[in-house]
Amino acid sequence: MDEAALIGRAVAGEAAAWEPLVITHQEAVFRLAYLILGDSDEAEDVAQETFLRAWDNLGRFDRSRSLRPWLLRIAANLANNRRRSAGRHVAALARAWQVEAPSAKVDTVSVEESSAEHLRSEQLWQAVRRLESGDQQIIYLRYFLDLSVSETAETLQTAEGTVKSRSSRALEHLRTVIERGFPMLGEERAA
Hints:
This protein has 2 domains: 1-97, RNA polymerase sigma factor, region 2, helix turn helix motif (Rna Polymerase Sigma Factor, Chain: A, Orthogonal Bundle); 99-191, Arc Repressor Mutant, subunit A. By secondary structure, the chain is an all-alpha fold. The protein has helices at residues 3-11, 15-37, 40-57, 67-83, 86-96, 108-129, 133-144, 149-156, 160-181, 183-190. It contains 10 helices and no strands.
């Protein structure tokens, strides 16, 4: 059944129609919340709250549009509100940078490769976290969640041209951050 039909059934009060929509979009909602918050428990809370709020407001949703950008907008707003809480933000960042020790049974080469990949991913995420929140959000949506320009525009409630220019500006800011603080990432790009 298509998304609009499921939404129609959910609006009519059929909770079972909401479940496949949640399943379809829960990973993207969680991932965006996690990217913003850096804490899986907080991101899970935001994802749950996103779907509760969406369910409560589903009657006002324009069924001619895709549900995903609307859900991501709700998730981003909720996550940004949580992020503004200083205590939670500091604790989440501290937990995000902790690295688990690899198992002793793992091949040394794969451990080294895995560790290097983990370090690169961690450094990239740290670099993105140094950007202003607007730049972070556009990077998360376009490149971490792989949304199209039109989906990003719908999520941010802005024009596609604005998404393109903000993406370009955010990437330029990210290049500057990488050059100044994460030379390892810059060297890999040149290689």
